[in-house]
Design brief:
Largest sheet: 8 strands, mixed
Shape: elongated
Radius of gyration: 22 Å
Strand content: 15-25%
Order of helices and strands: HEHEHEHEHEHEEHHEHEHEHEEHEEEEE
Helix content: 25-40%
Bound molecules: ligand LLP
CATH topology of the largest domain: TIM Barrel
Distance between the termini: 14 Å
Number of helices: 12
Length: 385
C-alpha cells in the first residue's frame, strides 16, 4: 500500500512485479501474534497464500507454525527453516509419496480428510516403523457467507470427513495401530468478513469435540482453520485485519477445555502487504465504446478476478492528470476473462503509466502460471528500494 510514495523508484523497474510492504507485514504479524498470545492460541501461516522466501523468513521470525496443503509445501516450509514440529499438513488428495515425505520429516500432524486416507497413513507409518500423529479434518457443515468458490465447510464440499462417516467408522479408526488421533481440524472457508460466522464455527466445533471425546478420542488440539477476510474495497481503511475480534469471539464461544487451539491464517497475514505493479501498454476503445487500458500484467500474475470475479482496488500511481475517466483494465493473456476490473475511475491514463492492483499479497504470486509462456512476476521489497 506504499506504492504511491515510492512511485518514482518503481518507474525504473521492469514490470509487472509484486511489491511487498515489509513494514506492514511486520505490523500485521505483530498484531496477530501479540493478540494470540493473550489467549495462548497458536498461529500457523497457510503457506499456500504466498510462499515467497523473503516473506517466509519474516514470518518465521515471529514464531508462527506452517499449514501446508501438499508435500512440496511441506518441503518449502522446511527449506525455509521452519521446525517440522510446527508444520501441519491438510489436503483432500495426498499422494503416497507426499505422505511418506511428511512421515519422514516427522511433522506435527497430518490432517486426514477421508477414512481411506487414515488407513493409508497407518499403512505408510507401519512401513516406516512409526506411530504418526494425525488430526481428523471434520466437515462442520457451515455456510461461511463468502464467495461460494472459496467456501470449504458445507456438507457437500470435498473437504473434511462428515461426522456421520466418522461415527460409523469409530472402531475401524481405533483399530489402526500406527496412527494416533491427537487433533480435530475444521476450516470453513476464506475471505470471511461476517465475524458472527466464527461464533457459529466455535459452537459447531464444541459439539464435534465433545462427541469425539465421548467416542474415546483423546484430542490434544483443536485447529479451527483460517478464513479471516480483508478489506479489498478500501484497503487503506483497514491495513491490518481484525485479529482481536476473532480471538475474542473464539475465547468467548469455543469451549474445549485445556486443549491447544490453533489457527491457520493465510490471507489476513499477507494479503494487504502485497500489490501488483503493472505498466500500461496501450489504450483503445471498442466499437461499443468501452475504453480499455491494456496493462502488462494479466491473469497469469493475478488470477483472482478472472477465476472468482474477485475485486481488487486499482489506482494509477504516476499520472499527474486531474481529469478522471472510466477504464476497463485488461491484461495480456489470450483469454476474454483476463479483465482486472471494469469501469475503474482513473486520472487520464497513458502508455507507460504505472498502476497498482492492491491487496494482492495473498493468492496472487502463489497462483501465478506460465500460460502463454509468460515469465513469472518478480518481487520487490519495500526495505530494499
Ligand atoms: N487452512 C486450510 C485448510 C485452508 O484450506 C486454507 C485456505 C487456509 C487455512 C487459509 O485460509 P485463509 O486464512 O487464507 O482464508 N485462492 C482463494 C483462496 C483459497 C483458500 C484455500 N484454503 C482466493 O484467492 O481467494
Amino acid at each position: 500500500m506504499l506504492s504511491r510514495q515510492v512511485a518514482e523508484k518503481l518507474t525504473k523497474l521492469e514490470t509487472p512485479f509484486y511489491l511487498y510492504d515489509v513494514a506492514l507485514l511486520r505490523q500485521t504479524l505483530e498484531s496477530a501474534m501479540s493478540m494470540a498470545s493473550k489467549y495462548g492460541y497458536k498461529v500457523h501461516y497457510a503457506i499456500k497464500a504466498n510462499y515467497d522466501p523473503r516473506l517466509l523468513q519474516i514470518i518465521r521470525e515471529y514464531g508462527l507454525g506452517i499449514d501446508c496443503a501438499s508435500g512440496n509445501e511441506v518441503r518449502c516450509a522446511i527449506e525455509a527453516g521452519f521446525d517440522p514440529k510446527s508444520i501441519v499438513y491438510a489436503g483432500v488428495g495426498k499422494r503416497d509419496k507426499e505422505i511418506r515425505y511428511a512421515i519422514e520429516q516427522n511433522i506435527y500432524a497430518i490432517n486426514c480428510e477421508s477414512i481411506e486416507e487414515l488407513h493409508l497413513v497407518d499403512e505408510l507409518a507401519r512401513e516406516a516403523g512409526r506411530v504418526v500423529d494425525v488430526a481428523l479434518r471434520v466437515n462442520p457443515d457451515i455456510d461461511p457467507k463468502t464467495n461460494h468458490c472459496i467456501d470449504t465447510g458445507q456438507a457437500d464440499s470435498k473437504f473434511g470427513i462428515s461426522y456421520e462417516e466418522i461415527l460409523s467408522s469409530v472402531e475401524d479408526i481405533k483399530s489402526l495401530r500406527n496412527i494416533e488421533v491427537v487433533g480435530m481440524h475444521i476450516h470453513i472457508g476464506s475471505q470471511i468478513r461476517e465475524l458472527h460466522v466464527f461464533e457459529n464455527m466455535c459452537n459447531k466445533a464444541n459439539v464435534i469435540v465433545e462427541n469425539l471425546t465421548k467416542l474415546g478420542f483423546e484430542l490434544e488440539f483443536v485447529d479451527v482453520g483460517g478464513g479471516l477476510g480483508i478489506n479489498y474495497d478500501m484497503p487503506e481503511n483497514e491495513p491490518i485485519p481484525n485479529f482481536a475480534s476473532v480471538f475474542a469471539i473464539t475465547k468467548q464461544h469455543l469451549k474445549v477445555g485445556e486443549r491447544e487451539v490453533h489457527f491457520e491464517f493465510g490471507r489476513s497475514l499477507v494479503g494487504q502487504c502485497g500489490e501488483l505493479i503493472t505498466r500500461v501498454l496501450f489504450n483503445k476503445t471498442t466499437a461499443t465504446g468501452r475504453r480499455l487500458a491494456i496493462v502488462d500484467a494479466s491473469m497469469t500474475e493475478l488470477i483472482r478476478p478472472a477465476l472468482y470475479g474477485s475485486y481488487h482496488n486499482i489506482e494509477n500511481i504516476t499520472s499527474e492528470e486531474s481529469q478522471r475517466l472510466k477504464y476497463t483494465i485488461v491484461g495480456t493473456a489470450c483469454e476474454s476473462t483476463d479483465v482486472f476490473d471494469e469501469n475503474v475511475s482513473l486520472p487520464i491514463t497513458k502508455r507507460g503509466d504505472l498502476l497498482t492492483i492492491k491487496s494482492a499479497g495473498a493468492y496472487g504470486m502463489s497462483m501465478a502460471s506460465r500460460y502463454n509462456q509468460h515469465d513469472l512476476p518478480g518481487a520487490v521489497y519495500s526495505d530494499e528500494l
